[in-house]
Amino acid sequence: xxxxxLDEEPAPDAAxxxxxxxxxxxxxACGALxxxxxxxxxxxxxxxxxxxxxxxxxxxxxxxxxxRLREKIRANKDRFDKIFVAYADCGxxxxxxxxxTGEGAVRIGGPHCYSFFAGAEAFDAMAEDELGTFYLTxxxxxxxxxxxxxGMGLRKYPQMRDMLFGNYTRLMYLAQTDDPxxxxxxxxxxxxxxxxxxxxxxxxxxxxxxxxxxxQ
Length: 216
Fold this sequence. Notes:
Strand content: 15-25%
CATH topology of the largest domain: Rossmann fold
Radius of gyration: 17 Å
Number of helices: 10
Number of domains: 2
Distance between the termini: 22 Å
Strand order of the largest sheet: 1-3-2-4-5
CATH architecture of the largest domain: 3-Layer(aba) Sandwich
Helix content: 40-55%
Number of strands: 8
Order of helices and strands: EEHEHEHEHHEHHHEHEH
Structural class: alpha/beta
């Protein structure tokens, strides 16, 4: 495993890994969280934590996530003292938790990354305030074109926009960083979907507490 990829943003089909020689605890994560997780490891000097990821593009096929996660856990459980899973349920209908429990790992709480970035209570309040909200994180803002316009076929079939997003009214950008370039991308995403743009700075949210627990 290597941290060479960290100078660049992991692509949606990448499965990046990061480890040190002192690593005794493994965090299996969605590739969309790789950058934030490794930032936390570096900031806190948690050299005993290793990270391995599943490709972020699996969000377009969530039924594949549980089996891929099980494979990751079983391939690594003999190499590490503990395994943590930085994955929300992500549309798996509880199947992810069955894998995590069955394999003796520990998962971050929450139905999706928007909830643990914003904080569960804050996210629930946002969702109740306006049900028709489409959410972006830093990662999704960077890769909106690949994951949404191309991944969902909107570039090829623009008429699908109203069919897929006709019930949405706003795009909420949950920002982990204050990056003007990313905000421009998020605003462009809102325009592409015909939605009102809003931004809320969340930082790492509950992900930071989860990583601190894994580091103990």
